[in-house]
């Protein structure tokens, strides 16, 4: 946690895990959420309370369930100091 109890933003070193080397797969959204929650020393129930979502939703995200509502995901990621981005795939 950063000053004032707010989550610290990810640094370039933290994000290096998100850029896999050749032959490695990128961590899933659920893996990244769980890893960040544990780094912050928070329980699923605590994150759920801070984000205004259910503990069940946090578990679903961490277990990569297929149907995740983005309107609920945004506050969860915000509490954890994470962001969701989209990019175009390479066409080559």
Task: Please characterize this protein's 3D structure.
- With 92 residues, the protein is mainly α.
- It has a domain at 27-82: lambda repressor-like DNA-binding domains (434 Repressor (Amino-terminal Domain)).
- Helix content is 46%, strand content 0%.
- The protein has five helices and no strands.
- The chain has helices at 12-15, 29-39, 44-51, 55-62, 70-80.
- Helix 3 (44-51) crosses helix 4 (55-62).
- The chain starts with 11 loop residues before the first helix and ends in a 12-residue tail after the last helix.
- Residues 10-18 have low confidence and may be disordered.
- InterPro entries: Cro/C1-type_HTH, Lambda_DNA-bd_dom_sf, Tscrpt_reg_HipB-like.
> Tell me, what's the shape?
globular
Secondary-structure element string: HHHHH
Multimer state? single chain
Largest sheet: none
- As a percent range, the share of helical residues equals 40-55%
Which structural class best describes the helix and strand composition?
Answer: mainly alpha
CATH homologous superfamily designation of the domain at 27-82: lambda repressor-like DNA-binding domains
What's the Cα radius of gyration? 14 Å
Mean pLDDT: 83
CATH class categorisation of the domain at 27-82:
Mainly Alpha
Q: Ends: how far apart?
A: 41 Å
The total of beta strands comes to 0
CATH architecture of the domain at 27-82: Orthogonal Bundle
Strand percentage: under 5%
Q: Which ranges are low-confidence, i.e. pLDDT below 50, for 5 or more consecutive residues?
A: 10-18
Count the DSSP helices.
5
CATH fold title of the domain at 27-82: 434 Repressor (Amino-terminal Domain)
Organism: Kineosphaera limosa NBRC 100340
Region (Disordered): 1-33
Domain HTH cro/C1-type: 33-87
Protein name: Putative Xre family DNA-binding protein
């Amino acid at each position: 946690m950063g000053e004032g109890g707010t989550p610290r933003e990810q640094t370039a070193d933290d994000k290096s895990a998100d850029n896999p080397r050749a032959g490695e797969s990128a961590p899933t959204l659920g893996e990244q959420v769980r890893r960040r929650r544990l780094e912050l020393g928070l329980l699923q129930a605590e994150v759920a309370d801070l984000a205004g979502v259910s503990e069940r939703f946090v578990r679903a995200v961490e277990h990569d369930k297929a149907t995740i509502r983005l309107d609920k995901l945004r506050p969860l990621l915000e509490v954890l100091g994470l962001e969701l981005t989209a990019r175009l795939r390479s066409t080559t």
